[in-house]
Amino acid sequence: MEDLYRFPNMINTLQVVRCHFGLQPPGWHYPRHHHHLFELLYCSEGEVVQEMNRESITMRQGDWLLIKSGVRHQSSNLASVDYGYFNVHFDLDDTEIRSLLSTTPYRHIHHQDAEQSKLQFYLSELEAVMHRNRSMDTAKQEQ
């Protein structure tokens, strides 16, 4: 029998490191650093100044920031209120997607643009998974 169509063998890996939600007080600062992973940040409350390669942006509630691997960056909460955030470091071996993510040192997605995407949906899904895991951990500890 002759093949009508043959799918190529595909193996793609997504590495996720240090995925968490956090809350930092006014005056908080994370020093300049870099890593060999992409970083995706979401500002859930307050605001924060992010500096990448000596260029600063202010993230406000609902904003997202994608930082390319290898880019030196730092964070500062210069506001008078807490800064709430979601943060994930990741890498992937899909060369096409990796190339798209690497076109600029960073990409700031303002909340107006993010609302038109599925980013908030995915964040809600992650939160739900984390809450389920936390509930399971609590139940195990009570046993």
From TrEMBL:
One Pfam family named in its UniProt record: AraC_binding
AraC-type arabinose-binding/dimerisation domain ranges (all copies): 24-133
InterPro entries with a match to the protein in the record: AraC-bd, HTH-like, RmlC-like_jellyroll
One term of GO molecular function: DNA binding
GO BP terms: regulation of DNA-templated transcription
Keywords: DNA-binding
Name the UniProt record assigns to this protein: AraC-type arabinose-binding/dimerisation domain-containing protein
Taxonomic lineage: unclassified sequences, metagenomes, ecological metagenomes
